[in-house]
Specification:
Number of strands: 4
Distance between the termini: 23 Å
Structural class: mainly alpha
Shape: flat
Number of helices: 4
Helix content: over 70%
Length: 153
């Protein structure tokens, strides 16, 4: 089905597969931009080449989505339970998953790229890595909020 947008050529209705593709492509490009900005402006982050940063951004996006999927499964488990203890355990387990997976992600980056991607500084680079990942997530959220605002949602 096609829609006419005033001032713009006819367009096709977007499928769910296309939406998912655009969502992940956008997230990878955001991660790529953040990673390269840190590489350029922060001495604690070093990426050997643009090609390596593209591959690292893809790997990071896959690992971030996997981490969030695990966290959501843990949350669903504890949400099915009642009581204060279940709520407290949900928060603790979510924190352990979200924080602990950063070590797994850093290990995966090190395994996949070795010295081509280096996060230096305190705690063997985990602090720099967490700063980069947190910035990636914040940038993705900011872009999503702008998009939703433009869409009137």
């Amino acid at each position: 089905m096609t829609e006419e947008i005033p001032g713009i050529a006819l367009t096709n209705t977007v499928s769910n597969k296309q939406r998912l593709y655009i969502r992940y492509l956008t997230a990878i490009l955001i991660d790529l931009t953040v990673l390269n900005l840190f590489d350029e402006y922060w001495e604690l982050v070093t990426v050997e080449s643009f090609t390596v940063s593209v591959l690292a951004a893809i790997l990071l996006q896959v690992l971030l989505k996997a981490t969030l999927a695990v966290e959501h499964r843990v949350a669903l488990y504890f949400n099915s339970k009642s009581g204060v203890a279940a709520r407290i355990l949900r928060v603790i387990c979510a924190w352990v998953v979200l924080f602990g997976c950063k070590f797994i992600m850093l290990g995966a980056i090190d395994f996949a790229f070795g010295d081509a991607v280096v996060f230096a500084g305190g705690s063997h680079g985990i602090v720099a890595f967490i700063v980069v990942v947190a910035t990636m997530l914040a940038a993705e959220e900011a872009v999503l909020r702008i998009y939703l605002r433009l869409a009137g949602q």
